[in-house]
Amino acid sequence: MIEQPAFGRRLRMLRVQRGLSQTELAGDEVSASYVSRVESGRRSPNELIAAFFARSLDVPLDALTHPASQDGGEHRSRRLDIAGKLLEARSLRKDGELTVAAELLRGIGAAAGHADEYVLWEATWELADVLRELGDTTAEHRVLADLADTALSQETPRLAARVATAVAENLRRQGRLGEAVRTAEHAVSVTGVLPPTAHERVGTMLALINSYTDSGELENAAGLADTLQETAEDIPSRQLRGQVYWAAGSARFLCGRPEDGIHLHERAFACLRPEVNLAAWARLCRASAALRLEYDLSQDATGHAARLLARARQALELVGRDDDMAELMLAEAHLALREGEPERVLELTTQVCDGGAELPLAGLGQCQLLAARAHALAGNTAAARDSYRLAAETLDRAGAYRKSSEAWRQLSDMLAAGGPGAGPAAATG
Fold first, then answer.
1. How many structural domains are present in the chain?
2. Which of 346, 367, 374, 269 is nearest to 311 (CA)?
3. Alpha-carbon distance 392 to 409, whole Å?
4. Does 325 share its domain with 426?
5. Pair (46, 76) in one structural domain
6. Inside any domain, residue 281
């Protein structure tokens, strides 16, 4: 007899143990989405499909429908062993041994049985986090997709929100902005039953603001930032409160209100202390500097941005990932552009493109746009024209339509002005 959700949990356990994806288990017999529904308990297979799954997994049908009961002592011992491995993986992660930690966490997933679903969920979540730190966005997305299909994620709003938020951020880093917006909107809807200051609810709203911002939906981003800012002082976590001020300030910059943006970023700095989370503080330094260079036309903006970038570099050289350093160099290239140093801009953008960091399409387009401005500033009209076109096309593919339009506009302005004659005005606008 097939009983759900027990059958689905055993099916998923055996599939993960054998290292198969849902698509690979489905084969030509059923669809991957059908496997997902069975594993989550939303669909009960008939006897023929259950037998197909058993053959594909090379186990007797009874292993899926009537697993042998476990001795209580053995079961407890296995749970303790899995918990010990999870603690070991966390220690390895803390020590910077991310690859080793990831392998250990994968082993936990293969060893955990259906009765260990809570430990398995936690280990899988930890694995997704480690893969994010390693910069392996593709593998992280696969792990998160599997986690979203678990019964625990689907039955618990807080867990569902955490996974959906992580998926949205992953899609945003990949440059899949339309998908990121839809996923983040779903995450926000899931948390409607939670208090306004609950960590998961605030996190989903931050992910949606970031997705709106990157896709150029600035009015939506600003409106949601205003809503979130109203509850900021009631958020228990100081770090999370800092993230809210960071997002709200960035929205103000993008809407042409740099003074408000600077003020809110200062409030973010007051919450995000380097002694608590050096990486987050450094990323705020980098992001705030980049926005000042782009939107603050005051005389002291360049000096402030230079000091922020110097602090960011000092910290990120210690704790930053490859993508952190790539984004830092893009901000430094923008600083060099503002200071009228096209050669330095091209040196930095070449390093970013050739450095091996897995830049999202939007980041690559921004790199090409900075190179175009540098060529224009140096008077190299032909190279500027090609780089502007390449940047616009890349940004358009990334879904960053506002930035894409900006690249086309700057190309048009340069050509209308007769090329180099537009010089710095076109390059630094």
1. 3
2. 269
3. 10
4. yes
5. no
6. no
Report the 10 Å Cβ neighbour count for 215. Answer: 22
Its pTM stands at 0.74
CA distance 63 to 195: 42
407 in the same domain as 342: yes
Closest CA to 260 of 268, 250, 272: 250
Cα within 13 Å of Cα(121), Cβ side = 19
CA separation for the pair 53, 41 (Å, rounded): 15
Number of CB atoms found within 10 A of residue 212's CB:
25
- Which residues contact residue 378 at a Cβ distance below 8 angstroms, ignoring those fewer than 6 apart? 342, 343
Cβ atoms 205, 187 nearer than 8 A:
no
Instruction: Please check whether residue 28 lies inside any domain of the structure.
Output: yes
Task: Region of 320 please: left (phi>0), alpha (psi -120 to 50) or beta.
Answer: beta
The confidence score (pLDDT) of residue 214 equals 86
Domain boundary among 14, 40, 65: 65
Let me know if residue 370 belongs to a domain.
Answer: yes
Could you tell me how many residues make up the chain?
429
Domain containing residue 377: 321-429
At 195, which helix (H) or strand (E)? none
- In the structure encoding, which two tokens stand for residue 14, read together? 């055996």
Tokens of 145: 């997709």
Kindly report, residue by residue over 147-157, the tens digit of the pLDDT.
998 888 888 88
Domain annotation covers residue 242: no
Same-domain pairing of 112 and 52: no
- ∠236-238-241 over CA atoms, to 5°? 85
Q: What is the pLDDT of residues 3-58, one digit of tens each?
A: 888 888 888 878 876 777 888 898 888 888 899 889 888 888 988 899 999 888 88
Same domain as 127, residue 47: no
Examine the fold and report which residue of 23, 46, 65 is the final residue of a domain before the chain moves on: 65
Element (H, E) at 306: helix 301-319
CATH of the domain at 26: 1.10.260.40
d(CA 428, CA 370): 9
- Within this chain, do residues 142 and 81 fall inside the same structural domain, yes or no? yes
Round to whole Å and give the CA distance between 238 and 218.
26
Looking at the structure, do residues 55 and 78 belong to the same domain, yes or no?
no
Look up residue 272 and give its DSSP letter: S
Q: How far apart are alpha carbons 225 and 229 in whole angstroms? A: 6
User: What element of type H or E holds 126?
Assistant: helix 117-134
By the 8 A CB rule, do 345 and 380 touch? Answer: no
